[in-house]
Design a protein that fits this description.
Distance between the termini: 65 Å
Largest sheet: 7 strands, mixed
Helix content: 25-40%
Number of strands: 16
Radius of gyration: 22 Å
Structural class: alpha+beta
Number of helices: 17
Strand content: 15-25%
Length: about 475
């Protein structure tokens, strides 16, 4: 009998998804302004991270599943390391360092996390944190990283101040063989396991309606399993495990909000439009055809309740978002994304996918592999959008000037896209497998120009009597809005 805490079905699912080519490791970066007191920085990181019980535990497999077990030989020096970058030690070197770490799996004999303090980076320092997906999802990792920080510079190392929460609240018949047994399995996870069922269905949708209308749940599950194939592109292929990362300079959130208000859409629509445009531009630059191309991304949706806002673990659903990469006109692309995102707000998909993840944690490992391998074949990327605190934060007295993170990809998905807002800025990051996209910086460099195009429409496009740029656009193109 293992002396520990049983790992939840949801976390078990992510634990079993580790692959040499796609380790289930979430990576985050905090860039700090100088000057840096490194002794104070290391002491702050150690004292605050080790307050989380999960970070003092390792994984042990027993006859009836996996368990969290206290690591009585935990060595802080194994998990918190100081390092310097080679050469000039600049942005490119930090990207290479982060990519190398993102390619590495954890040793299960020890707690599944690491924190690297990079000295003398950009006049200050960088902190690179890595956590296994079984310990925390991407939303929880950002909250974990920001729990190291304070709202003012002068706070004692051991003091726990407010812990900021970065978490705001043609049919393909290949899948038909999975549908009947999987519907039964999810039914077990959502129905027979009454507590789990009520918990899942209460997230993101009205629980009474969900329980009465099981057809909606079955319909969402059928959609996931019978999704048409994603558009073929050079972003698809077999990953080999060597990662590459890149991230933008911070963009002003106030400017993005102003443009979105002028265009009558949401900030999230703008962000997705910029990503779709950058992917389109990259494909065109490689001589690829883009007409009619739709690239599907799996987007995590936070399903934590207010009481769970500070919890580690995995409490999220997933929606499939098709990026209209084939749409050339930036405004047409923006409004198409706006329509799609509005439609997704009524979806049961996040709650159903959380139930699926829970249910597969009970299922045999082989069945889980079959289902997730099948689903990953339907998407090109994983994309995460996390809103962080919009005010300054300080780590060991040094101001945090940048925050970035990347979630892992699964099975044969070779691209991860991250969007994070913090302290009035927005950052985009991309992680790719080097066998598929050797230099993700070529994509990142196209993000800024996409916003400039939309700003150009706001400043230069003629407005008609409607005072509605979308209506004017469609009118000029001879179409109905």
């Amino acid at each position: 009998m293992v002396n520990g805490e049983r790992i939840s079905p949801t976390d078990t699912t992510w634990l079993r998804m580790d692959r040499p080519t796609n380790p289930m490791v979430i990576t985050g970066v905090l860039v700090l302004e100088g000057p840096i007191d490194f002794e104070r920085l290391a002491a702050t990181i150690a004292s605050r991270l080790l307050n989380f019980a999960r970070l003092r535990q390792r994984v042990e497999e027993g006859l009836t599943g996996f368990w969290w077990v206290s690591d009585d030989n935990l060595s802080v020096s194994r998990h918190i390391k100081r390092t310097r970058l080679p050469g000039r030690g600049g942005h490119a070197e930090l990207e290479c360092f982060v990519a190398d770490l993102a390619s590495q799996s954890f040793d299960p004999a020890h707690p599944l996390w690491q924190c690297h303090v990079v000295e003398d980076y950009d006049g200050g320092a960088a902190v690179v944190a890595r956590v296994h997906h079984a310990v925390a999802d991407g939303l929880a990792l950002i909250a974990l990283m920001l729990s190291l920080t304070d709202p003012v510079p002068e706070v004692a190392t051991q003091d726990r101040t407010d812990v900021p929460c970065a978490i705001d609240v043609g049919v393909n018949t290949q899948g038909q063989g999975f549908l009947t047994p999987l519907t039964s399995l999810v039914g077990e996870g959502l129905g027979i396991l009454d507590k789990v069922g009520r918990e899942v269905l209460a997230r993101g949708t009205d629980p009474q309606k969900a329980l009465k209308d099981s057809l909606n749940i079955a319909g969402e599950l059928a959609y996931l399993l019978l999704m048409p194939e994603d558009s073929p592109s050079i972003f698809r292929g077999k990953p080999r495990g060597e990662k590459r990362v890149a991230w933008t300079d911070p963009l002003e959130l106030a400017e993005i909000k102003a443009i979105s208000r002028a265009l009558g859409c949401r900030v999230n629509d703008m962000l997705l439009c910029a990503v779709a445009g950058a992917l389109r531009s990259y494909l065109l630059g490689k001589g690829e055809q883009t007409d009619g191309v739709e690239l599907r991304t799996f987007v995590p949706v936070n399903l934590r309740t207010e009481e769970e806002s500070g919890d580690l673990g995995n409490i999220f659903g997933i929606v499939a978002v098709e990026l209209p990469v084939g749409v050339e006109n930036p405004l047409s692309r923006l409004y198409e994304l706006h329509r799609r995102m509005e439609a997704l707000k009524q979806s049961y998909e996040p709650a159903v996918t959380l139930g699926l993840i829970m249910a597969l944690g009970y299922a045999p490992h082989q069945l889980q592999d079959q289902i997730f391998h099948f689903l990953s074949s339907k998407a090109t990327a994983v994309m995460t959008n996390v809103p962080g605190p919009q005010h300054p934060r300080y780590l060991a007295g040094s101001r945090v000037k940048q925050v970035m993170f990347w979630v892992p990809q699964s099975y044969d998905i070779a691209m991860g896209i991250s969007i994070l807002s913090f302290d009035g800025k927005v950052q985009f990051g991309i992680m790719t497998d080097a066998a598929i996209v050797l230099d993700p910086g070529e994509i990142i460099d196209k993000i800024g120009p996409e916003f400039e195009q939309l700003l150009y429409f706001v400043l230069m496009a003629p407005w008609g009597e409607s005072n509605d740029l979308e209506t004017d656009l469609f009118t000029r193109e001879g179409r109905e809005p």
